[in-house]
Amino acid sequence: QVQLVESGGGLVQAGGSLRLSCAASGSIFSINTMGWYRQAPGKQRELVASIVLRGNTNYADSVKGRFTISRDNARNTVYLQMNSLKPEDTAVYYCNLLPNPRTWGQGTQVTVSS
Fold first, then answer.
1. Secondary structure, 3-state, 81-112
2. How far apart are the first and last CA of the chain?
3. Contact (CB, 8 A) for 48 and 38
4. Tell me, what's the pLDDT at 27?
5. How far apart are the C-alpha atoms of 67 and 62, rounded to whole Å?
6. Which terminal CB of the chain, N or C, has fewer other CB atoms within 10 Å?
7. Is the pLDDT of residue 29 over 90?
């Protein structure tokens, strides 16, 4: 069973930066595409960034140029560097596998004040 533990969220002013981490259990990490998702209050969960095993990345238009996803396969960890944060980035951030997500972790809250 895959377990995902997100961390690194917090309260930051607009224009600031945060780095999120996601530790995944199980060797399945090294053979899967990983993604960072977010869910704002009253909205559906959305995919914001993904990274394949070889490192190719994709981003939602709303975060392109500001967020960077990376992974360390040896440590079973995926990261999300978030720069130039905006109030609309406020959400709970989750990581998971793609294209078939596993059980969701608890997520990490990111709050951006204006």
1. EECCCCHHHCEEEEEEEECCCCCCCCCEEEEE
2. 40
3. yes
4. 63
5. 9
6. N
7. no
Phi, psi dihedrals of residue 34, rounded to the nearest 5°? -115, 150
- Tokens at residue 34, please? 């990983």
> With 0-12 CB in 10 A as exposed, 13-18 as middle and 19+ as buried, what is 88?
exposed
Does pLDDT of 16 surpass 90? yes
d(CA 43, CA 53) in angstroms, rounded, equals 29
Distance CA 49, CA 32 (A): 14
User: Can you tell me the mean pLDDT for 29-41?
Assistant: 88
Q: How many CB atoms lie within 10 A of CB 62?
A: 13
Tokens of 41: 């209050």
Please count the other Cβ atoms lying within 10 Å of the Cβ belonging to residue 106. Answer: 11
